Give the backbone structure.
Amino acid sequence: MDPLEIRNLKKSYGSVPAVKGVSFNLRKGEILGLIGPDGAGKTTIIRSVVSLLLADEGEILYMGKNIRDNPTYIRSRIGYMPQRFSLYPDLTVEENLDFFGDLFQVPKQKQKQRKEELYAFSHLGPFKKRRAADLSGGMKQKLALSCMLIHQPDVLILDEPTFGVDPVSRHEFWEILKTQSRRQGTSILVTTAYMDEAGQCDRVGLMFAGRILALDQPQELEKQFTDPLYVLHCPQPHEVFEQIYHDDSLYVANLFGEGVHITLPRERTEEQLRNYLQEKRLTITKIERIKPSLEDVFLKLMHG
Amino acid sequence: MQRILYLIQKEFRQILREPAFLGLIFGAPLIQVLILGFAITTDVKNVPMIMVDQDHSQMSNRLVEAFSNTKSFHFLGQVGTAKEAVHLLDRNKIKLAVVIPPHFERDLKTGRQPRVQLLADGVDGNSAGVALSYANQIALKLQKQWFPRLPHAPGTVKEIHLTGIEARMLYNPSLESVNNIVPGILAVLVMLITSFLTGMTIVREKEIGTLEQLMVTPIRRGELILGKVIPLIIVGLLLFTIAIISAGLVFGLWMKGNILTLYGMSLLFMMTTLGMGIFASTLARNQQQSMFITWFLGIFAILLSGFFIPIENMPRVIQWITYLNPVRYFMIVIREIYLKGTALHYLWKEALEMTVFGGAMLTMATLRFHKRVG
């Protein structure tokens, strides 16, 4: 049985729909990432799953049990990390760990052993007497994760855990998550707004405006993008993008950091694209065919 | 159950780590009792006054002397006519003028009642009333000394004597307001500290996000509330004790009644204030809002408790409202225990009322406190 099953989840805040019917399963031992921009409904899903929010419609089953009727059941068996750092800043690293170990009623002997294990992988050991407020952003996130792992939950639910964390710490954080899922078989549901983190997940759900547009392994999702894709390297990508975008041509343009991504419809050839760009008199230094990234897939799905 | 202990342990770790909090616990009661005890006074002292002596006799001199030798009045001297005295009153130089009529001594000696006139500034009606009664007391005292020595018919003496009614104040013989105010301050202190701190410590967890984190643990709603509230009860009682000791050391005012009765009553009263704090925390998003809500409710509760303003002086409708104010009952209880040493079995009505209000408040607040967001 899949540890977590979400069926047709719907939730509105007043008249504003946040989640418009979402279904997916979290499989045993996998890392499932929900990726999408702010306001896509990721946090609403997470908060419903951890029983902080009551869904308007749909069912959430944890180990086959409906969480609406058994909130305590899920609360004692999962580890939840909210979007914001939410530990006690005036308590030390060790005191925070002890407190959550106590709350989850981990036996003292076991707690001690778990703490050593957690110090080992998080490298927080030397800082155990330091107050949580005085930790760096990355260390804070590792501490929050450790507090949620002390009772060895089967399921870990994290809401944008790497938000505002430096790239090195982000990488380290993902390594910890992967180790946890591979070695302990922990199932992990995680949200992020960073597309580049999708590759770290076993499966990825692309979210936009309260819906999951597609959910699959990252490589499979990339295969969905079958049209030829080119990148235009140019000194003023913004201008080039505007020109093509407003031209109502058959070419679909998207603005990226490195330049403008342009999709060629089936019926067109690369030759025709080059001619088109020449006619428009756009300054382009280089045209290059590329492999589509997940972001290209996302933008394509988003625009329908 | 054990989880409550873990929460309490955590709470005290946080309290002990916060110097400002410790300062508040020990400093606040001492400073409040000290400053408010001296500042809030309905005693009338040093009333600026003058005298108009139109008799210039031996007896009128004695009267002037009597007024100039009291702490209640600040004797500024004499003027010639009543008109001048009124002028001084108009210009707010004095609050009271005593006018001794001509033939004061002669009238007294012949058994005719002389009419000493008191002119008082009635802007502050309360103080004026008290000042007048002080003045009457001084006059009466002199009368008592003189009359037996006067050479006229015993019948007349009796008659004049009978006109003076002397009230004797029980429990607070010197009518010192500090005796009444200080127990009141203790009550207000307990109320403010417990309701403010409850609201603020819960909302603080909301602000830093730990409440959300706590909600997604197996801890139950009741356990969470008890874990937050028990440390505050302990802090509240500690504060109360410090305030009691300060009041004793500074004003020499120690309770006449049983200390255990007082602490028991305080616990009953705290049910209401803690409930109020929890209630505020369910409404407020941040600590400022929580403070505002408790302050808003608190100020009404204090004003309508009989702390400064006697409830009997309020309009009938307001008096009815005060029956819904638990602070009113605690104010009665604490003054009874402090000043009269009233035993527990005479206070059962107040105890019952505080229990009912406290229970209702706590239940309502707890029901509003959900383990969900939004």
Observations:
- The interface with chain B takes residues 13, 47, 50-54, 71-72, 75-76, 78, 80, 82, 84-91, 95, 99-100, 102-105 of chain A (CB under 8 Å).
- The radius of gyration of chain A is 23 Å.
- Chain A has ten helices and 14 strands.
- Residues 167-184 of chain A form the longest helix (18 residues).
